[in-house]
Amino acid sequence: MSRRRHSDENDGGQAHKRRRTSEPIEIEDRLESLICRVGEKSTSSLESNLEGLAGVLEADLPNYKNKILRILCSVARLLPEKLTVYTTLVGLLNARNYNFGGEFVEAMIRQLKETLKNNLYNEAVYLVRFLSDLVNCHVIAAPSMVVLFENFVSVTQEEDVPQVRSDWFVYVVLSCLPWVGKELYEKKDVEMDRLLGQIEGYLKRRVKTHVPMLQVWTAEKPHPQEEYLDCLWAQIQKLKKDRWQERHILRPYIAFDSVLCEALQHNLPPFTPPGHMPDAQYPIPRVIFRMFDYTDAPEGPVMPGSHSVERFVIEENLHCIMKTHWRERKTCAAQLLSYPGKNKIPLNYHIVEVIFGELFQLPMPPQIDVMYTTLLIELCKLQPGSLPQVLAQATEMLYMRLDTMNTTCIDRFINWFAHHLSNFQFRWSWDDWADCLTMDLDKPKPKFVKEVLEKSMRLSYHQRIVDIVPPTFSALIPADPIFSFKYDDESGSSLPGYPVSVLVSNAIKNRASNEEILTILKEVPNPNQEEDDDEGETFNPLKIDVFLQTLLHLAAKSFSHSFSALGKFHEILKALTESDDGKLHILKVVYEVWRNHPQMIAVLVDKMIRTQIVDCAAVANWLFSQDMAHEFTRLFIWEILHSTIRKMNKHVQKIQKELEEAKEKLEKQQHKRRDSGDDEDMEKNSEEDDEGQLEEQIERLQEKVESAQSEQKNLFLVIFQRFIMLLTEHLVRCETGSVDISTPWYKNCIERLQQVFLMVSITHICTLSNQLLLDLFLLIFVVYATFSIKGFIKSTCLTGAPGLVVKVWDYAR
């Protein structure tokens, strides 16, 4: 009765009761909000906000210590751009509660071990940097930090491990020194000198043959494209020469020095770097992108030199902001433009350089390409008076250096520029690029302009492109994307397949069945048959030509019409393409009818792969065929090839995942049956039936995986064999004609080969068998041995399994 009476008399009592139970959650949410937002814009100073927050957290430690520890460990890992803000906060808490400081250090070490175990190497860098900055806040003792660094550098002495493993541990140590180098040198100068000596020795013996493959430009002028560890080492050397004086890192803990220096310090728990594992995925090497120097920003603050540590700190912080906020372009742009200390540097130049540096990073950018486009658009909107001018200056510089630019980077430049123009009414000073009109159309500049206009047409329409470009650029304007139908009334009536094309067209319009249309197609003569009347039924190119030309002509109105037509007559298309020749010919027909519409070709080929009308190997053979030789350097060709490779790999990964899940399910059922003991016979029989079905499913999936891997291997071997044939033919032609082999076509072909190989070996190295990788490496070696570009295999293998590297490299030597 009392419960009912309470409810009847006052409904608010229940609400009050709910508020009381949710109060701890509300407090935890409030704590998380306070911690995450500290350091953002506020009417109060950062120091007063930190002091106030430290007081709040100290008061809540008795009840919410674990929650506070989790939040602080998370922000150390996920908000590296506010590193010093949070180290100061931890320092203040440690000064007030020594035990909490110790627990936090232990929690950070546990989290570091976990991130390394899970291959989260970028986050591990932030955690170590956070720990190193705690030395400045008198939370961690300097000798303890030096020991950790020494353990990291000891990895360089390991044998039979990939170079990228040693690189990462050395990078972690060097990247922490701008924050903590001065403090460590004051306390442990002898040990630090020895540590830097070991690093210098390692850097001198490193293999760096991978660098040319990762450089955006082949030319070293006006800005050298340095390998990331070499550049960072030069910056640290200059910092040491300047007595570790750095002028850009925000250090709020200086204001609390009198409080922090009284705090007791902690020693780091013993930490040994985890050993190398075959499935470890270390960050791959990269090259530092340089576009601007102090001469490019004549007004306002001076841009730091390329070997000044301030340049590293600024770029690192901007990269961190982008990594944290890349999903929200508006937030990301606002955070970049509100960068602390922006009045002391030419911020717009730094932002543009960092964004292009990520966009052009080889072999893959950190985020999807379109993110950088939308981010630059948002930045232009927020800073309309200054940033568009810097972006235009950068675009002009990129255009001027196209001759030495990597082909993959040119592709990304084309896609970015066309997308960017489409958001600003395609306005551009095209006359400034009139120099490309006097060049051979195979040269990079006219090819770039032509591809940009074609991409722009995809985002607009043909007449708009004609209107925005000066008449002098008419040779570079893409053709009107109209359908080319050879069986039309005017010119096609004399062709052998014309009568059947008319019949097929009428049948489709009258909604005839597939069987009726196949009956009509039997009347098509086979040009390959000649007198032998039985052997020609398997492949009739004219039959495919008549049917597909007619079908696509009727469906030429839009993408949707074309997709619907392929779906509706899928059975006929499958019947016509049973042989490899049939698959190849159907792709030739798609190109013939849509040769002026590359986007339509790309989407139709994609659709045909998805619906299994053609397979991936057929697409590769078609793209490398003699019929497509004149289009070999066009961007849409490589978009189709890359899309085909991605589909093949995703297909293999999907089936492998299904197989692993089925095996796990079977293992769980068997484990459950063993644990159940003497249950009833009926339940046992039911479980055994389920296990039998699972075993059959696993067997079927195993067959599917083997079949898919075989297709994958065939695709990769086809691609690289075709590259070998093309390059060999080029070499023979050049030697016969006494011509230099280094033509624009050759540069394009070699860089496309590198692009595809990196795409296969690095992005999908976990999905390929060692034997397949070995086959691919040996094929590439044949090419590079022939063309005297040795060292490619060794540099590319730096990211692979050590045993495989040794095996391949020994063979190559």
Automatic annotation (TrEMBL):
InterPro entries: ARM-type_fold, CBP80, MIF4G-like_typ-1, MIF4G-like_typ-2, MIF4G-like_typ-3. The keyword Glycoprotein does not apply. Keywords: Coiled coil, Cytoplasm, mRNA capping, mRNA processing, mRNA splicing, mRNA transport, Nonsense-mediated mRNA decay, Nucleus, RNA-mediated gene silencing, Translation regulation, Transport. Its main location: cytoplasm. One of its GO terms (cellular component) is nucleus. Pfam families: MIF4G (PF02854), MIF4G_like (PF09088), MIF4G_like_2 (PF09090). Residues 677-696 have a biased composition (Acidic residues). It comes from the Eukaryota. Residues 28-240 form the MIF4G domain. It is found in: Cytoplasm; Nucleus. The keyword Cytoplasm applies. Gene3D superfamilies: 1.25.40.180. One of its GO terms (molecular function) is mRNA binding. Residues 1-23, 663-696 are annotated as: Disordered. One of its GO terms (biological process) is 7-methylguanosine mRNA capping. Belongs to the NCBP1 family. This is Nuclear cap binding protein subunit 1. It comes from Cyprinodon variegatus.
